[in-house]
Amino acid sequence: ESLRGKPAAMMALRSGGVRRAIASRARTFASSDDDREPDHWLSRSFPKQEAWLLEQAEQWWYKGLSALLKSEGQSSLATNHDLILTQVRDRNASLQRENRERIVDGRSRTHLQQACLALATYEKLSPWVGDKQESLLMVSRLLGKDSASILNPLQRMSMWLTRNKFSMVAKRIKLLSLDYGSSFETSVEEEEGLECVLTVKSCFYDRFFREMEVPELTSATCCSVDALWFTSDAIRDDGSLEFSRPSSIAEGDDACVLRLVNRKGR
Predict the structure, then answer these.
(1) What does the pLDDT look like over 50-83, one tens digit per residue?
(2) Element (DSSP H or E) covering residue 115
(3) How far apart are the first and last CA of the chain?
């Protein structure tokens, strides 16, 4: 199960197997491909398929962007559709080449692709859109913001089918920690059956976008996509669970904290 609301290709890449170890430490950036081990199950077992999935995810992004350019109601976007797409493709390719040293594991390869696509799109949309918030919204839509209408019914059904709702959602939090990989510094603390807390002390997207001088993209990418899985109506309406994000790196805090509480267990 993937925790990211993206097209199937990206979702398959971002998924991770369940492991007992639920804490990871950020490593220094590797300098070459030889320094990186294929530590994710997809990298180990299906290296060629992983590259194929990355390519498919990129093509899905461009297809989504193409559709947005034609549907946003701004004549300048539709008129300059081909030019904007070409500029985004070229800028994305350049960003990925220039930042390959950030790849320290299979997860960070996907993080880098997602961050570069978001940055390239944001940069090349801005001259035509003019409104920074509108450009951010378009990026977040490409990252899955619009998938809430699909995720909510699915989560509502899974909540209805499961006997232990807290355990199911807590498992998602642990999977999210694994999904981040070694380019994040995370820890998970759990009081069995009562509370599960994920703390992110160092974030790939925060570092990347701050260095690129566009820190506003962190909340539009990493934060907004993760929130889709834990702020749905299905969890709120159930009444037995309470999810909160008391702090966020994107908002200037020292760490991102995602907290799940079993209200019936208190």
Answers:
(1) 777 888 889 999 999 999 998 866 678 989 999 9
(2) helix 106-129
(3) 29
